[in-house]
Write a structure and sequence with these properties.
7 strands; Rossmann fold; binds NADPH dihydro-nicotinamide-adenine-dinucleotide phosphate; single chain; alpha/beta; about 15% strand
Length: about 250
Amino acid sequence: MSSAPEGKLEGKVALVTGASSGIGEATARMLAAEGAAVAIAARRADRLRALGDELTAAGARVHVIALDVTDEEAVRSAVASTVETLGGLDILVNNAGLMLLGPVEDADTTDWSRMIGTNLTGVLHLTHAALPHLLRGQGTVVQISSVAGRVAVRGAAVYNATKFAVNAFSESLRQEVTERGVRVVVVEPGTVETELREHITHAPSKAAIEERVAKIRQLRSTDIAEAVRYAVTAPPHVMVGEIFIRPTDQA
Ligand code: NDP
């Protein structure tokens, strides 16, 4: 009887933030299917537990972490407990994010603090905490940035600012660590069908984006997980630096 083919990530350990829905959840499933042990982190622990049970039943090693990425101490503990529980850290997927669209004028600036804390400061602290482990094992950091990290548009100023900042940080980090074998991958999706838009507090911006996306075939979370698969399963000498992926219908 022939055994099932080995996944390309057997023996690797991955940590995925924002794994309770959307792109993070799809990416965690993909990584587990490729044989990685997966730490799944987000605030909604009930969702993570359900995903964890499913992945465990399918044979994966899973570590569930209730985590708010805006809490630096909690971020450091999350990385430490991943290493302790799963035996290392080879792949960090910085995916947790918020897209609170709206004009600058009259903005609710608590939206700005939440986005900066989650999309930018959270990414910085996670990367910093994970880096010693990634350097030890020649690991990979995957940043789920956005088309919004390359192209600024009206009504997305602070979301754009956070994602541009992630791209700048990632290019500088790449130059710092690439010759020591650590790969820094930036994935920049266009519109993906997820819960992301549900959190927009500025009602006209929410209505406008809902109207726009209703007219197109959106990307699926699994499309982005496939892009991550391509980058993280590439041979170690191949650094897939940037993947820009849009819906065909999005002009
Ligand atoms: P979802 O809203 O489905 O997922 C966002 C995830 O981030 C959730 O799991 C959420 O979990 C988590 N999250 C939010 N805030 C925090 C926090 N403070 N601490 C920990 N986890 C947090 O949306 P997507 O899957 O679309 O978003 C994932 C990433 O993809 C984001 O960075 C987003 O900017 C990016 N992206 C999305 C696009 C799209 O069109 N959907 C396009 C381009 C990029 P919980 O609430 O349980 O904490």
